[in-house]
Amino acid sequence: MATAAAEQLRESFLTGKTRPAAWREAQLRGVLRMVTEMETAICDALHADLAKPRTESYVQEVKSSCKFALKNLKKWMKPQKVSAGVLTFPSTARIAAEPLGVVLVISAWNYPFLLSVDPVIGAIAAGNAVVLKPSEIASATSTLLAELLPRFVDGSFIKVVEGGVPETTALLEQKWDKIFYTGNGKVGRIVLSLAAKHLTPVVLELGGKCPVVVDSNVDAHVAAKRIAVGKWGCNNGQACVAPDFIITTNSFAPKLVESLEKVLLKFYGKDPLQSPDLSQIVNSNHFNRLSRLMDEEMVSDKVVFGGQRDELQLKISPTLLLDVPLDSAIMKEEIFGPLLPIITADKIHESFALINSMTKPLAAYLFTKDSTLQDQFENGISAGATIINDTSIHLTNLHLPFGGVGESGMGAYHGTFSFEAFSHKKAILARCFIGETKARYPPYTPEKLKIVKGVLKGNLLAMIQAISGCARGA
Amino acid sequence: MGSVADERALGFGGLVSELREVFDSGRTKDMEWRQSQLRGLLRLLREKEEEIFDVLREDLGKHRGESFRDEAATPLVAFPATAFVLPEPLGVVLIFSCWNLPIGLVLEPLSGALAAGNAVVVKPSELAPSTAAFLAANLPKYLDSKAVKVVEGGPQVGEMLMEQRWDKVLYTGSGRVGRQIMAKAAKNLTPVALELGSKCPCIVDWLDSNRDSQVAVNRIIGAKWGTCAGQACIAIDYLLVEEEFAPILIEMLKSTLKRFFTKPEFMARILNKKHFQRLSDLLDDPKVASSVVHGGYFDAKTLTVEPTILLNPPLDSDIMNAEIFGPLLPIITVKKVEDSIAFLKPRPKPLAIYAFTRNEKLKNRIIQETSSGSVTFNDAIVQYGLDSIPFGGVGPSGFGQYHGKYSFEMFSHKKAVLKRSLLIEFMFRYPPWDDNDSKIGMLRHVFRFNYISLFLALLGLRR
Q: Counting one residue from A and one from B, how many pairs have CB atoms under 8 Å apart?
């Protein structure tokens, strides 16, 4: 099935139908229509998979993505003229984007709709044929995508292949012109090693522990709100850019904890497990994993707020932990859930060393009014993104590249970066027959070498000599 | 810590940790440090020019004219000189270079890696031993030896290096080894850039004026036999010509070759016995041997092969399926020059496609209907020296691009940065990463980065 899909798409791509802007625009409008007309069905599927509140469906983001692509498509497709320099005078040089060909998008379970359709939008805008493999863990959304996409876009060029590990492996064995994978580092390595067989370039959007450094000079309430919405308001912490843990000063911690508790009460009420605004944990596997993190001996007594669980509903309430040991599992693995450890330090600068001792995250957050600290953070912490005084919002900014570095991934997308991720930037140099420089050719003489040297160093006289063919010799 | 030789015995773990420490100390991020390294490279090229020519002649029999043009000069020309914003160094990077442009393929990416603020390990090709030894002796003298290391050795050393985790690896060479590098990189999620080989075709259209034809012939010869005797990833591999034009073209090639290569030392020799044998084997097939219309003499003693032209060797022969990387030029005829496009479509995407033509329609069709790293009209090889365009392959010819600002970008992470105020609810937006934006416009933004000083310095506006 995987082989057939890949082969069929390759045949389709070779027809050249995906090249013209008109075709791409039609597909993008199809996606936009799908998202608009089927919004309810999409939200229902997301709710079935994750008990996701409507506001977290990111349907709006997908619409914006489509509209942004439609608006900019012609500009992106236009070749960019660049300076042609003196060496090849007279000549013109430009860079033109072309589709890579047939690409594979493998999406994740936590934002199963957004992380499927958003990369596909980029692939289409860039003029490729695409196979989308939605996550089988979010099965309702997977089924819906398989059913809906063919109705709204050209099925000979955009296919959905459903399935689990065997189907994904079969797909990865094929030759693609690009693979776009969102998920974890373990599978990311497998994707990269399978891609190596065909020399396929990849984009890997992976995870990490996104730290939040909170300085004592901030308004605790505002900080708490923004942290809370980025943590529990994002799939109940099951998001690659969700704040993973907080580092703050000993003195500020009590205030921060108090503000967080107040905010959480306001957001989710006295009984958060009953709140419709809290997503569930995706499955029992992850529920058990998170329970284990909480129940570890050196950690279980550090819970200062929350900790409620409902195994049947697969719900865990927002949970705060204070000063867990740094070698506990909860501080070593990416949490991907509603548990928020707060680590305290004497001075806020100590947070830098801790963050740098971990692998580079997808995002690093800092709350402070101190602009020196902000600069130090931006220059001293490497991450996919660094955000000051907020969390997670960069996701929605279509002008920022979204992607990781080191363990958190390679490559980026969103906005223009999506188009570029699925394009090859072809350099085109056009010369004509005048401006023949005999000094280039053998027989090589010292005079010719002098001219070549002069030209390459920008010596005007040498250039004139070269162009006018004044060199003695052939 | 011990010498590089000791490191080798221990698997390079110590070497990488040491470099990581250097990088983490922030030394390589400093703008002045980067400038000093780039100046060091320039000094190396200036002061050691003669020695460079010598080692290149030893390794490859390259004439100094060729050496200067392709190796010593290229980094000067491709010096990063454009603006870049939002970048941060990746950390500790590894550059593998190839034997055919052993200086250029090191110094070009090295300058990009240093400008981007990384610590670097360079592994020159062992197949160009004099050049490798030269780099090992001189790079530490002209650059910060704590942050830039040269590791010599063969495939085994390459494998050992790849066991380590790097923040980026650039490999120039064959697809076979490229796959191995990428597979090893997968274990550590190391991002790679691969500059691989391919058969670069050159379409030659009917050129009405004699003068145009001569210019085309000059440039074709320069791009085949004048470039490391055809041993270059962007050398012309074979020609596609209309059958009626082929005899005329062949005659011109023959007479011009005679005029150009008056002395044997004007053409580089074949790298080594292995490649010499490989090239000689290409003519084993009697059908291929009988298609030779010029040249064909192989001198095993001097490892030289005279410029050789073949007319229509069988399309299923090795010479038409593997990258030639040598001074043999097959000419494939087509009925109409437009048929070249259909010929190219099913074949693996090359690093470069060349076409000599005045026909604008044909040019557009080539651009639209074929795919390659780059396309150059009415010349060849010269695209390599132009730093405003990216250099790199697509499909089997590789991925990742460099030269000019792209070298800087190849070794940088484009970090998205966003700032909000706690009081006022509006965003300090970062500029759109848009190549069409005026670079000066970027300066108006509220952020302050060290990199802006770097940008100004490169523009000469600040020391």
A: 257
pLDDT tens per residue, range A320-331:
999 999 999 999
What is the third-level CATH fold of B201-392? Aldehyde Dehydrogenase; Chain A, domain 2 (3.40.309)
Question: Can you tell me whether residue A265 is helix, strand or coil?
Answer: helix
Q: What is the pLDDT of residue B317?
A: 96
Domain with CATH 3.40.605.10 in chain B: 86-197+403-414
Q: Which residue of A has its CA nearest to B364?
A: A428
Answer yes or no: is pLDDT of A367 > 70: yes
Could you say which residues of chain B have pLDDT below 50?
1, 73-85, 424-463
Closest-CA residue of B relative to A423 is B394
A59 pLDDT above the threshold of 60: yes
* Chain B residues closer than 8 Å to A472 by CB: none
Q: Give residue B444's pLDDT.
A: 28
Closest by Cβ to A441, choosing from B186, B226, B369: B226
- Of the two residues B59 and A261, the one the predictor is more confident about is A261
Quick one: tokens of A250?
């000993």
- Is the CB of A88 inside 8 Å of chain B's CB atoms? yes
When mean pLDDT is compared across A256-265, A348-357, A448-457, the lowest value belongs to A448-457
Percentage of the residues of chain A whose pLDDT score is greater than 90: 75
- The residue assigned the tokens 């050795």 is B153
Distances (CA, A) of B368 to A130, A428, B85: 20, 11, 32
A205 is catalytic: yes
Q: Topology of domain B86-197+403-414, per CATH?
A: Aldehyde Dehydrogenase; Chain A, domain 1 (3.40.605)
Q: How far apart are CA A260 and CA A320, in angstroms?
A: 9
- The distance of B129 to chain A (nearest Cα, Å) reads 26
How far apart CA B92 and CA A362 sit, in angstroms, is 19
Active site residues of B: 195, 233
ipTM computed for the complex: 0.91
CA dist., res. B222 & res. B279, Å (int): 20
Catalytic residue among A56, A205, A334, A420: A205
Determine, for residues B375 and A196 on separate chains, whether the beta-carbon distance falls below 8 Å.
no
CB distance B189–A402 less than 8 Å? no
Q: Has residue A470 got a pLDDT over 70?
A: no
Q: For A177-216, give one letter per residue: b (16+ CB within 10 A) or e.
A: bbbbbbbebebbbbbbbbbbebbbbbbbbbbbbbbbbbbb
Could you say which of A199, A427, A441 has the minimum Cβ distance to residue B222? Answer: A441
Residue ranges matching CATH 3.40.309.10 in chain B: 201-392
Put simply, the answer to whether B430 touches A399 (Cβ < 8 Å) is: yes
